[in-house]
Amino acid sequence: MVTGNNNYKTISEAFAELQQARAQYEIDNNTKKTKHHKAKKKSYDVYYSGSIPEKTKKNKAINQDRLSFKEWIRYRIDKLRYDRKEIRKLALITTGVFGVCIMLISTNYIFAQYNKEEEIKQKIATNVFETNNESLNIQKIIIENVEITKSKTIVEDEERELPFNVKKQENPNLPKGEEVTVQEGVFGKKLVDCIKSYEDNKFVGEKITNEEVVLEPVTEIIDVGTSEFLAKFKVHLGDKMYVTKNVNLKEKASDTANNLCIILESLDVKLVELSDTWCKVEYENYTGYVKADSLTSEAITPGIGEKSRKQKLYATLDANMDLTKPSGLTLEDYKKVLTGNSSDVNKIIESNAENFYNAEQKYNVNGIFLASIAIHESAWGSSKISKDKKNLFGFGAYDRSPYESANTFEDYGEGIETVAKYLAKNYLNKAGTKIYDDEKATGTYYNGPTISGVNTRYCTDKDWSTKIFKYMDMLYSRL
Question: Of 84, 10, 82, which is closest to residue 51 (Cα–Cα)?
């Protein structure tokens, strides 16, 4: 219902009145007007079915059916103003009605959206969404809708690699689980004719029309170890192992076989071959068999390698040993065996451990042999000659006047080096033997490179060699 200063009660009545006004306006423009001529005054017939404007109604002298020209003009002007005013009223009413409709539609849409959101929340809460079993294939859609440039290329004699095969085989001479490549694999070669397909310059596939092998591949061969013994001790054939006790080296893998030699506890052997309960080993110049359970390794018995080294050094000690061969002792070994001796009160021998070691390296004279002579001749560095003349060996002394005739050195090191060179040149090497600094031995007092050989011409005391060897044994045992 529309309210205001108009007389319309409903929207339909307003539109009906607007339609009637428009129809009358057409009649007014298109109807032929009847003109009546009078002698003094012209009049016009006017047919009007609507209301007469107020200004026209006030003029009571005017005939509503027949108007003068002037009255007719005034009537038309008022009529036009009236019509425009009514039209504006109707436009305002229509605009208001349209706005109300838009508002109602918007309100319904908002409530609908709100209800839809509430419905979605309800579905999420109750987990009642249906699974979309017809998902889109984006790749397919793109391929179908995007123009793709396709091309093909013919290729002839294209060189390609042929892969090689890998063969694994068991090896009982390797630790269990260890793998060793015994033959490297090599790729082969082939020539290929084919047609290659591209889409947008990207390779998508090919059709091979011909293949020709020009180089056969080489199979890669891998040995896989199966020996639990080697795996346990973490060794390989050719490695060192150590005996855990004194054992007899057998000629064959049998308890009743002949003995080749005795291997002392902790000494090392070279592992050559495995059998069920025996191991074939090398020891010095012998090759024979020992029980597998009498062997160990550094991995199982830490420190046994060092113990074996020292044990082996001690095993080389012999009264008839060659004194021109290196002792094998390290500088640390020299310091160990020459340190802490209770008889070395003034620590003269201990303080010269490095000098004895260096003399051995330079002149190929056993340094423990030199130290043993110094200990014996100087009474552990306590003699008057050793103290006054820095001469640990009584070098140059004669029995008739030992102190006066003995050489004097600036320090103990000079005396040790002088005696080492003298022994190498005159006692331990044959004449003409190349010794140090391109020097050659004179062999003046040579009687063999042993302690007893030196004793022959070096000292009048016949037991000298025995005394020297006793000191050597004492020092070696300190390893």
Answer: 82
3-state helix, strand, coil in the chain (%, to 5): 40, 25, 35
User: Tokens 């290329």 — which residue?
Assistant: 153
Q: Residues 242-286: pLDDT tens digits? A: 999 999 999 999 999 999 999 999 999 999 999 889 999 999 899
**How is residue 396 annotated by DSSP?**
T
Calculate the alpha carbon distances from 323 to 277, 368, 426, 439, 471 in Å. 41, 10, 13, 18, 15
Half-sphere exposure of 394 (CA within 13 A, CB side): 19
- DSSP 8-state class, residue 252: S
Q: Cα separation of 435 and 421, whole Å?
A: 9
Query: Cβ distance 405 to 398 under 8 Å?
Result: yes
Q: Identify the band that residue 83 occupies on the pLDDT scale cut at 50, 70 and 90.
A: low
What are φ and ψ of residue 149, in 5° steps? -90, 120
Q: What is the pLDDT of residue 2?
A: 41
DSSP 180: E
Judge whether 378 and 343 are in contact, CB under 8 Å. no
Burial 316-349 (b: 16+ CB within 10 A, else e): ebeeebebbeebebeeebbebbbeebeebeeebb
Is the model more confident about 63 or about 435? 435
DSSP state string for 350-389: HHTHHHHHHHHHHH---HHHHHHHHHHHHTTTTSHHHHHH
Region of 437 on the Ramachandran plot (φ > 0 left; ψ -120 to 50 alpha; else beta)? left
The pLDDT of residue 361:
95
Q: How confident is the model at residue 79 (pLDDT cuts 50, 70, 90)?
A: low
Give the separation between CA 194 and CA 212, rounded to whole angstroms.
Answer: 12
- Pairwise CA distance, residues 212 & 192, whole Å: 7
Strand partners, 241: 269
Separation of alpha carbons 425 and 279, rounded Å: 46
Q: Is the pLDDT of residue 205 over 90?
A: yes
What is d(CA 356, CA 417) in angstroms, rounded to the nearest whole number? 8
Average pLDDT over residues 412-429: 96
Q: What is the pTM of this model?
A: 0.57
d(CA 252, CA 330) in angstroms, rounded, equals 37
User: Are 269 and 280 spatial neighbours (Cβ–Cβ below 8 Å)?
Assistant: no
Tens-place pLDDT, residues 356-375: 999 999 999 999 999 999 99
